[in-house]
Amino acid sequence: MKAKHLETGRKGEALAVLFLKKQGYRIKEVNYRTPLGEIDVVAVQKGIICFIEVKTRRSLIFGRPEEAVGRVKQRKLTQLAEYYMKERRLLDAPARFDVLSIILDGGGKPHFSLFQGAFEKS
């Protein structure tokens, strides 16, 4: 079960990068690792640094993918973004948090929902 979950996540992140590029994002980092955890995608769109959480599901049995980004995950992403901004000396740069939801249908075709500014820094 775990291997299938990881495979879905990796496929989703690869699809996410292609989708985001088509939406005008310039990808800076994929799977950016810090001592605190990992940011799925760091990109820039229209001069704004975007920290993007990618959630991929093969069905809706456990709810929509974006619903998995609750308060605890938002706080974690905020900490990770602050780490990135400090490390890159970008503390004064505009930034936002986006969530990219991907649902893979039975044939593996992706359906994307992009939530720009999905939540505020917490």
Automatic annotation (TrEMBL):
Family statement = Belongs to the UPF0102 family.
Q: Which domain of life is it from?
A: Bacteria
**GO function terms (MF aspect):** nucleic acid binding
Organism this protein belongs to: Candidatus Abzuiibacterium crystallinum
One of the Pfam families matching this protein, by short name: UPF0102
Which HAMAP family has this protein been placed in? UPF0102
Which NCBIfam families does this UniProt record tie to the protein? Answer: PRK12497.1-3 (NF009150), PRK12497.3-3 (NF009154), YraN family protein (TIGR00252)
Q: What is this protein called?
A: UPF0102 protein COV74_08530
Q: From which lineage does this chain's organism come?
A: Bacteria, Pseudomonadati, Candidatus Omnitrophota, Candidatus Abzuiibacterium
